[in-house]
């Protein structure tokens, strides 16, 4: 059996087109252009690429994107002052501070400082709490993108056993909450999980979000399972740089029913969901 490929690029293009359509309507009917402020502190090369993509795609979707690039030596107080200013700016509906931050800045303090109504990452404790209570809120972009791919791939999620590999605040934990709301049976695994391969063998849905190249092997997969690879790992093999996921694609594609490629799977959905969250935040600001 060869798995069908889940085309994240195509799904993301459709989502971006929907956002663009709705942003145009918002502008025409209410004179409101959703604004997304993106803050990058320092010059991490991977973060630089992500931020450039976010700014470009926001503009293409008809959003106003406001980029703030600050030097590495920016103090925590200076960053908090910028967030305070963006919180009070009526032209800014969404605020994203690219992570990771330089070591001298307390990430948690920064996340707490963002107004929950503008927290398009869904990282503020108020939004995290609302998600875990099953209430409407701004949902973290990567897990929401994964959920949209699953809904498009499977006829129903109800009662399926989902095994998530990785318990990060950005992906693993919110993913578990979202899948519980979809009536999945959820197992959240991590680096201390005993006999991980056996746990994954019971999964109808596998979500790998752990940052370890090709950790999930072909013989871990129940035949026909749906496998979502959130990993983006930069490796050098035979002197060539590659992007590889957390799933050993060449093995798993022979066993799974459906699988996301890396790149071109989950990655494009993350930014599309960020644009969607900015639109939702702007709609909320109309009262
Ligand atoms: N760095 C890696 N992923 C993310 C994300 O989803 N949001 C932010 N703000 N920073 C990130």
From TrEMBL:
Q: Which InterPro entries match?
A: Aminoacid_DH-like_N_sf (IPR046346), NAD(P)-bd_dom_sf (IPR036291), THF_DH/CycHdrlase (IPR000672), THF_DH/CycHdrlase_cat_dom (IPR020630), THF_DH/CycHdrlase_CS (IPR020867), THF_DH/CycHdrlase_NAD-bd_dom (IPR020631)
Write the record's keywords in alphabetical order, separated by commas: Amino-acid biosynthesis, Histidine biosynthesis, Hydrolase, Methionine biosynthesis, Multifunctional enzyme, NADP, One-carbon metabolism, Oxidoreductase, Purine biosynthesis
SUPFAM superfamilies registered for this protein in UniProt: Aminoacid dehydrogenase-like, N-terminal domain, NAD(P)-binding Rossmann-fold domains
Question: According to the UniProt entry, what is the EC number of this protein?
Answer: 1.5.1.5, 3.5.4.9
Pathway(s) this gene product operates in, as recorded in its UniProt entry: One-carbon metabolism; tetrahydrofolate interconversion
Q: Name one Pfam family in it.
A: THF_DHG_CYH
Tetrahydrofolate dehydrogenase/cyclohydrolase catalytic domain: residues covered: 6-121
Q: Which reaction does it catalyse?
A: (6R)-5,10-methylene-5,6,7,8-tetrahydrofolate + NADP(+) = (6R)-5,10-methenyltetrahydrofolate + NADPH; (6R)-5,10-methenyltetrahydrofolate + H2O = (6R)-10-formyltetrahydrofolate + H(+)
Per UniProt, residues of the Tetrahydrofolate dehydrogenase/cyclohydrolase NAD(P)-binding domain are 140-282
**Which GO molecular function annotations are given, in alphabetical order?**
methenyltetrahydrofolate cyclohydrolase activity; methylenetetrahydrofolate dehydrogenase (NADP+) activity
The family annotation for this protein states:
Belongs to the tetrahydrofolate dehydrogenase/cyclohydrolase family.
Q: What does this protein do, in the record's words?
A: Catalyzes the oxidation of 5,10-methylenetetrahydrofolate to 5,10-methenyltetrahydrofolate and then the hydrolysis of 5,10-methenyltetrahydrofolate to 10-formyltetrahydrofolate.
Give the matching HAMAP family: THF_DHG_CYH
Q: What is this protein called?
A: Bifunctional protein FolD
Q: Which organism is it from?
A: Zestomonas insulae
Q: Which gene encodes it?
A: folD
């Amino acid at each position: 059996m060869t798995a069908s490929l889940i085309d994240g690029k195509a799904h993301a293009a459709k989502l971006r087109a929907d956002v663009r359509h709705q942003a145009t309507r918002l502008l025409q009917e209410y004179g409101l252009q959703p604004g997304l402020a993106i803050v990058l502190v320092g010059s991490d090369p991977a973060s630089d690429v992500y931020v450039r993509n976010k700014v470009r795609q926001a503009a293409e979707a008809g959003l106003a994107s406001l980029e703030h690039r600050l030097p590495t030596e920016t103090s925590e107080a200076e960053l908090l002052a910028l967030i305070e200013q963006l919180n009070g700016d009526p032209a800014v509906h969404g605020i994203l501070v690219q992570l990771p931050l330089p070591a001298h800045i307390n990430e948690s303090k920064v996340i707490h400082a963002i107004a929950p109504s503008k927290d398009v990452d869904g990282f503020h404790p108020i939004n995290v709490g609302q998600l875990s209570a099953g209430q409407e809120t701004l949902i973290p972009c990567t897990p929401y993108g994964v959920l949209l791919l699953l809904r498009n791939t499977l006829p129903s999620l109800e009662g399926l056993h989902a095994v998530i590999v990785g318990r990060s605040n950005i992906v693993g934990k919110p993913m578990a909450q979202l899948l519980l709301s979809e009536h999945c049976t959820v197992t959240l695994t991590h680096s201390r999980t005993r006999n991980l391969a056996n746990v994954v063998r019971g999964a109808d849905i596998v979500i790998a979000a752990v940052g370890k190249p090709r950790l999930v092997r072909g013989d871990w997969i129940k035949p026909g399972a749906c496998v979502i690879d959130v990993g983006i790992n930069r490796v050098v093999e035979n002197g060539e740089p590659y992007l590889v996921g957390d799933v050993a694609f060449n093995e798993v594609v022979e066993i799974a029913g459906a699988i996301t490629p890396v790149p071109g799977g989950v990655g494009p959905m993350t930014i599309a969901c960020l644009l969607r969250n900015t639109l939702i935040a702007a709609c909320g600001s109309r009262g």
